[in-house]
Design a protein that fits this description.
This protein is mainly alpha-helical. Helix content is about 60%, strand content about 0%. The longest helix is centred in the middle third of the chain and has 11 residues. The chain starts with 8 loop residues before the first helix and ends with a helix. The mean pLDDT is about 90.
Length: about 55
């Protein structure tokens, strides 16, 4: 579980699909839906940069 008291680069560098607020944030940023985000994380890993590459963002 994420530490809500620490919102630093480590939190921004990884996508945790088990945290609803992160799923909501990343689906908006990437212009996708929950299912596509989960698929992207399963293929590319949870690195935000790698998931962005997966979506060509």
């Amino acid at each position: 579980m994420d530490n809500m008291n620490f919102i630093g680069s480590r939190d921004r560098d990884k996508i945790n699909i088990h945290e609803n607020y992160q799923v909501e944030y990343w689906t908006k940023v990437l212009g996708t839906n929950r299912e596509q985000l989960i698929k992207a994380v399963s293929v590319a890993g949870n690195s935000a940069n790698e998931v962005k590459k997966y979506f060509n963002k």
